[in-house]
Input
Amino acid sequence: MRILVVEDEVDLAASIEAGLRSEGHQVQTVFDGASALQELESSRFDVAILDRDLPIVHGDVVAKSIASTGSPVRVLMLTAASDLRSRVGGLRIGADDYLAKPFEYEELLARLEAIGRRLLSMQPQLCRGDLTLVTATRRLRIGTQEVRTTPLEYRILHALLSADGGVVGFGELLELAWDDGLERSRGVVKTAIHSLRQKIGPERIVTESGHGYRIP
Output
């Protein structure tokens, strides 16, 4: 999983990051709420391990921001407050789970694994052969390998896979470019298609001359 660690205790943050990396997770660490909001806006994560009492922007504000935007990011909240009222309050503002400090790393890992299982059970997918587009997290996989895409590439792939082998016309793809704030031109679409072919294999996207593209 891609995990954002938001913890202002530097030693604790480093320990969590090292442990998660050793488990094979991709981890980004920040030390305040403002940096967390920036990372959440610019990068994709599956889970945020979020300390509640953060400097600059409070952890509650970060959790509420994640919940209010409909983000697929799941929140595991950390806090020194372990009373029932605090736990319930954290869950009500958007946390998926709650872990009181101090804690054992094994419990943190077990709670993350439980969140990961829930994510897998909730993610609708679009599949064609060994191509899998997980729409909840906007992730593309070829077999077990994850492939990064730009927002426009993702939207084009979503349209092509949703067509279930049918042709998606240039007009529809031009609208996707327009929706992304890009110039509505065939050049923009062709550039995105060319990039996708390099990433997933040129044979996977077929050009139907005068009509559009399809994934057979």
User: Anything to note?
Assistant: The longest helix spans residues 105-122. The chain has a mean pLDDT of 86. Helices lie at 10-22, 33-42, 59-68, 84-92, 105-122, 151-162, 170-179, 186-200.
